[in-house]
From TrEMBL:
Record's protein name: Transcription elongation factor GreA
Phylogenetic placement of the source organism: Bacteria, Pseudomonadati, Pseudomonadota, Gammaproteobacteria, Candidatus Nardonella
Family as reported in the entry's similarity comment: Belongs to the GreA/GreB family.
Superkingdom, natural source: Bacteria
Organism whose genome encodes this protein: endosymbiont of Rhynchophorus ferrugineus
Domain Transcription elongation factor GreA/GreB C-terminal: 83-157
Domain Transcription elongation factor GreA/GreB N-terminal: 4-74
Keywords: DNA-binding, Elongation factor, Protein biosynthesis, Transcription, Transcription regulation
InterPro entries per record: GreA/GreB_C_sf (IPR036953), Tscrpt_elong_fac_GreA/B_C (IPR001437), Tscrpt_elong_fac_GreA/B_fam (IPR023459), Tscrpt_elong_fac_GreA/B_N (IPR022691), Tscrpt_elong_fac_GreA/B_N_sf (IPR036805)
Gene Ontology MF terms in the entry: DNA binding; RNA polymerase binding; translation elongation factor activity
Protein's GO biological process: DNA-templated transcription elongation; regulation of DNA-templated transcription elongation
Length: 159
């Protein structure tokens, strides 16, 4: 079976999502199904059909999250021999060499990536360029036919 690397925070987020669906969302939907069932003929009962559909969506989501959990292998920074090289789990600070803006990203699995939290997928174009690089290396990222040059100013790992 193929494993995917995931951070400890990523595992915790998966477990929270599963817990919320199982302990909050599903019970709410089951109550709605029960209530809408009392409205009469189920063939023409729109509330019942919608609630059943929502229930199936949540069930599918739980199965998907549990599958991801089953193939996940937690990444531990202590297992990295050379913490001066960018790898999965790295938190990387980059300076844009054109405008001197600084960006910070953590390289995570595709299942926990969230650009609003500066977590980028290991499969993203930027991550693919960064993997294996070191502090002070300069990278070129092509976006919309424009080259953006970045300098790596720091690399570290969360424990």
């Amino acid at each position: 079976m193929k494993h995917i690397l995931i951070t400890k925070n990523g595992i915790n987020d998966l477990l929270k999502k599963i817990n919320i669906i199982k302990n909050n969302k599903i019970p709410e939907i089951l109550k709605l199904i029960e209530t809408s069932r009392s409205y009469g003929d189920l063939k023409e009962n729109h509330e019942y059909k919608c609630a059943k559909e929502q229930y199936l969506i949540y069930e599918k989501k739980i199965k998907n999250l549990e599958y991801i959990l089953s193939i996940s292998k937690i990444f531990y920074p202590k297992d990295i021999n050379n913490k001066n090289i960018i790898y999965f789990g790295s938190i990387v600070e980059l300076i844009n060499m054109d405008n001197n803006t600084i960006n910070k990203y953590q390289i995570v699995s595709e299942f926990e990536s969230d650009i609003k939290k500066n977590k980028i997928s290991i499969n993203s174009p930027l991550s693919k360029i960064l993997i294996g690089k070191k502090k002070n290396d300069i990278i070129n990222l092509e976006i919309f036919n424009k080259i953006i040059r970045y300098k790596i100013i720091s690399i570290y790992y969360e424990n």
